[in-house]
Structures are given as C-alpha cells and as structure tokens.
C-alpha cells in the first residue's frame, strides 16, 4: 500500500514539473548523486559534521543517524525517497517514516536537499577536487 501511495504522490508531483513525464521515471540513485555532501566547501574540509550527508544506493547517512530507503522514484534530476529514519540518541523506539526530495539541476557538484515540509538546503559535493577521496566500495573477497 505505502509503495503504491508513494509512487502516486511522486508521480503527481513529477507531473507538476514542466518537461518531466512518466516515461522517465526510474528507481535508482544516479551515480552523480552518490557521495558526500555539505553546506559549503569550507564545511567539507572541517571536522564538524552537522550539515554533512552521505548518499548511497540504499540509504542516507547523517550526523544524527541514517535513513534506509523504503521506496525511491527518480525522474530526470529529481529523486523522491520514502525512508525509514533511524536517529541515534533518541528515546523513541524504531524508525520513523520520512520523505525527502533531492534535485540536481545546477551541475554535478550541487544538490538541493529537501525534507518534506521544510525549505530545501543547497549542498555541495565534498568528495571532488581533492577535498576528500571518492567513496570506494570494498573489493570482493578473493576465493
């Protein structure tokens, strides 16, 4: 039920964007969005992680926890994600359902990150131009 509801909401939202249609919907995170993001290049170089976010194929990692993807719909530069958010240090047991929108219209080194009901934050890529090494997947074990 939730899966079809999210797709319905995402597709309704998608249709409100000019030039974006149902045929372009996909269910994967584009490689250009995978990586580490923060509020500025200076923040990327610093030790504080309050604004930092790591995007992977199946979750978002924040300084306060992580959000596992429950459903994802992508159309062009826009990614709609329903997640199960696990916050560290909270007294509430279990995850809470959270909805995010990530948009990449201003090139590969900037995204607009939006939590449902809040203003979007513009984030810059941290793992480029020698600031931080690109994230490496572990090598498969040798048999």
TrEMBL record:
It comes from Notoacmeibacter ruber. Keywords: Signal. Residues 1-25 form the signal peptide. This is Uncharacterized protein. It comes from the Bacteria.
């Amino acid at each position: 039920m939730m899966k079809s509801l999210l797709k319905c909401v995402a597709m309704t939202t998608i249709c409100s964007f000019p030039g974006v249609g149902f045929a372009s919907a996909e269910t994967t995170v584009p490689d250009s969005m995978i990586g580490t993001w923060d509020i500025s290049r200076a923040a990327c170089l610093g030790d504080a992680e309050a604004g930092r976010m790591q995007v992977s194929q199946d979750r978002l990692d924040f300084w306060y926890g992580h959000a596992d993807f429950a459903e994802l719909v992508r159309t062009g530069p826009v990614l709609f994600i329903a997640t199960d958010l696990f916050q560290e240090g909270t007294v509430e047991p279990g995850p809470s359902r959270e909805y995010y929108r990530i948009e990449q219209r201003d090139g590969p080194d900037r995204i607009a990150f939006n939590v449902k009901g809040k203003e979007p934050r513009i984030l810059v890529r941290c793992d480029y131009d020698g600031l931080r090494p690109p994230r490496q997947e572990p090598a498969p074990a040798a048999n």
